[in-house]
Amino acid sequence: MSTAVVVGGGPNGLAAAISLAAEGVQVTVLEAAQEVGGGARSSEAIIPGLLHDHCSAIHPMAVGSEFLGRFGLERYGLRWRWPEIDCVHPLDDGSAGVLYRSVEQTAAGLGPDGSRWRRAFGYPAARFDALSQDIMRPLLRFPHHPLMLARFGAPTVLPGSAFARLFRTKQGRALFGGVAAHAFRPLHYPMTSAIGMGIIAAGHRHGWAVAEGGSQSITNAMVALLSDLGGKIETGVRVDTASQLPAADITMFDLAPSAVAGILGDRLPRRVSRAFNKFRRGPGAFKVDFAVEGGVPWTNPDAHRAGTVHLAGTYAELAATEREIHAGLMPERPFVLVGQQYLADPQRSVGNIHPVWSYAHVPNGYTGDATEAIIAQIERFAPGFRERIIGHSVRSTTQMAAYNANYVGGDIMTGAKDIRQLTFGPRITLSPYTIGVPGRYICSAATPPGPGAHGMCGANAAQLALAHLARRA
Ligand SMILES: Cc1cc2nc3c(=O)[nH]c(=O)nc-3n(C[C@H](O)[C@H](O)[C@H](O)COP(=O)(O)OP(=O)(O)OC[C@H]3O[C@@H](n4cnc5c(N)ncnc54)[C@H](O)[C@@H]3O)c2cc1C
């Protein structure tokens, strides 16, 4: 029987482990933390019973994930829940850009920008399932649907700023900009519309869903499936050197490229090691969870029904804050993402006290305390919020990296999503999961298709590993 070791038990490590175990490989996952799950974990905090997602919260890219679908994780308790409204981007005058799962409903709310929204997103949303066969894999390969991919792909090379100019209303521009800013890149850089377009198209097809019982349920379902397939998990095992790696036919690294280079040292070809050590990090996230009595008192009525609220003000303000964090400067009013998962999954609340998830975009390695800036930004669009806070808990950029070594300096994307790294992954190659050592692969969110709790980096890398085993047999 072939054997495999997976280092790191985040969604991608678990997806790789499951994909291998399902083909009869004997798999062991080695995880540094006391429990697996990486960025897909949740727990009670602040007050007993109040359930907070530690990282990943909203899952437009996961619901339709080929990996999650293939293994039928609902059999292991994974259930998606949807808020009434996917995302709201409020402005100071009380108005907002409002994103619904339906393209038509979104367009109807955007007034003069409605037809532009429909033209931009109607086509990729209607064909998202077919498109995802190409965009959820390394991009530089012969596509399953070349014409469809070309039509979707052409505008993704645009800077977010150019794409945003398609929209004439401040609500339409801000709504698109807030989603594009998930790329953690200055929006005037080329290809910064790509991540936003992917998330919006996925959301119009599958909705911005949350996992019932917290994102931990994604991990729990994967762990139960892996166990059924005979896989083993060892927690509290941090791998720092190659000598700690058990002998195995396959080794998968659900790690940042620099960590793989550190572990394998001169066992890696020099060109790979150089590329992995030069891999660029993205800006950081500073996270604050709140316990809020009666929920957030938003001025905009739609924000009361939205799973996600993007706080930055106008598109111009948002673009300025993203430029600043990229330059290593902490903006006075950072881009803040607020999650109200409890609206779709009420069991996360305790009576009238609700868990509110938030993080701000900050410079990589930011050492200050962004809590007050986050509260002020929420207060700006929800006067009276401060008085409703019963308690809060903070995860700074430093704590983020201590919590999960992949998030160096608070970089929750596992690497800057610049053109090169977004297109190729950790190094310029057509095979982004290979590391130049037969039977060893990198499968973290540093590889295509990138961040998210969809498991596709791990599943794609596992296909290469299985092909390697088949060639040896
Ligand atoms: C604050 C925040 C908000 C987010 N929001 C969303 C969201 O709403 N939707 C979404 O889809 N995604 C979101 N993400 C991103 C998502 O969580 C990640 O992209 C995803 O978890 C990446 O999965 P992974 O398996 O590649 O790596 P990770 O989840 O980072 O897991 C890596 C695992 O490897 C372990 N590890 C690291 N080093 C070692 C070592 N040396 N030895 C052994 N084990 C090691 C870590 O402990 C960890 O368990 C968010 C992330 C954060 C932090």
If you had to describe this structure to a student in words, what would you say it looks like?
The protein is of the alpha/beta class. The protein folds into two domains: 3-58 and 214-279 and 414-472, FAD/NAD(P)-binding domain; 80-210 and 282-403, Polyamine Oxidase, Chain A, domain 2. Helix content is 37%, strand content 17%. Strands 7-6-12-13-14-11-15 form a seven-stranded mixed beta sheet, with helices on both faces. It has a five-stranded parallel beta sheet with strand order 9-2-1-10-16, covered by helices on one side. A two-stranded antiparallel sheet has the order 3-4. The longest helix is centred in the C-terminal third of the chain and has 17 residues, at 456-472. The radius of gyration is 21 Å and the shape is globular. The N and C termini lie close together (11 Å). InterPro entries: FAD/NAD-bd_sf. Pfam families: NAD_binding_8. It comes from Mycobacterium gastri. This is FAD-dependent oxidoreductase.
